[in-house]
Amino acid sequence: MDIPISSMPVIDFWFEFGSNYSYLSVMRIEQDAARAGVRVRWQPFLLGPIFQALGWQTSPFVLQKAKGDYVWLDMERQCRKYGLPWKKPGNFPRPAILPLRVAVLGAEQDWMAEYCRRIMQMNFAHDRDIDNKDVVAAVLNDMGLPATEIIAQALSDENKLKLRKQTELAMSKGIFGAPTFFVGGQMYWGNDRLDDALAHARDLLIYPDA
To answer: Which residue would you say has higher pLDDT here, 120 or 205?
Structure first.
């Protein structure tokens, strides 16, 4: 069934480039959503302020050793499952302010999905410092985009404020981790809930009052 884009149900995808489970979702959401007839609305945000509001200075995967040990084993399994390259980051959670500022700027651009996949691979497949102007510029240049212009816009006061407001919005919605998905008023947390969120979005197309 061909569905006009304007009539497609929407999934809001809240993610962070420093989040390992966001890596899994970023790499597959566009293809899976297209298959389900669902439109993705990219919602980059900063996870650090949310952790701080919860009283944590870093990721719970660092604060709790047993959980962290499990997560890295799980990431090996999950990447093998999805056929994704994987290298445990040498620095975790890795700061990602600059690439997130670019993502906020490009959230509605047609290059957004490809940009996010490339940045994620820099972090979780190539173990590169992604909060780095040269790395971000290389990604944008390789995509044939005007890197200098985009980074300058991303570093404008207006765009910095936009990322802060986006993070405040995430807090107001009760987001406590990444990735998180919203379909209508329903929240789904974690990469392993992406399929459920897409199924719900698909149901809304058939049963709009669900």
So the answer is: 120
